[in-house]
Amino acid sequence: MKTKNRTKTKYMTKINLLIIVLLIISFFGPMEAYGQPSVPFPSIGLNIETADSPQQVASSIQILFILTILSIAPSILLMMTGFTRIIIVLSFLRNAISTQQTPPTQVIIGLALFLTFFIMAPIASEINANAIQPYLAEEISDTEALDAAMKPLREFMFRQTREKDLALFMEIANSEVPDSLDDIPTSTLIPAFIISELKTAFQLGFILFIPFIVIDMVVASTLMSMGMMMLPPAMISLPFKLLLFIMVDGWNILIRSLIVGFN
User: Could you give the angle at the alpha carbon of 113 between the alpha carbons of 101 and 66, nearest 5°?
Assistant: First the structure.
């Protein structure tokens, strides 16, 4: 009996090998017959050659610089615009209402991105008119274009940055008291702007929590007085929170407050 099973196993193994060989031949057969693959595959190559002139070296460095900027673009979007404040406030709102994953995280991030684009649109237009277009027309140099692009961004960050936060980083950096805002380096301005945005976002979050906490307290006290201690208060208070938010047109008020806060 064992001999028959072994013979049968060997026979099945040979059949499987034969099937695999036939598949390989059927796949690679057209390549060998016609001298080219049946399905055209793209060929990607990277050549490193000696530069013929200094201009080629400069162009390569510029390409490398552009790729570096693109890699840190998300950080620039997060840290130098109003995205940080918006996304934190929207997250606080979702936690205050206790809707868990409603709205979904993707919706909150998308809303925060488009609100950021809306708020930063005038600044982007100014950068395009004063820095990008003159640079593409070869009217200004790289350094001048960078300075012109940073000017409206710095003005935006200065409007949202508290003097106390700015003084903190100036003190840590052992910098002298500047004569004007132009003398403050960007490396000092950016972290001061970030912590100012965080403080503002947390202040707005605290204000958002107050009315919903009141509803939670009223519902919890009512259930306790009725002896319904086993009934979760969050389950009962959620509809009232949603009703309050809808009646006061909460999205309109919140978005208006966020946008006006950047002016």
Answer: 130
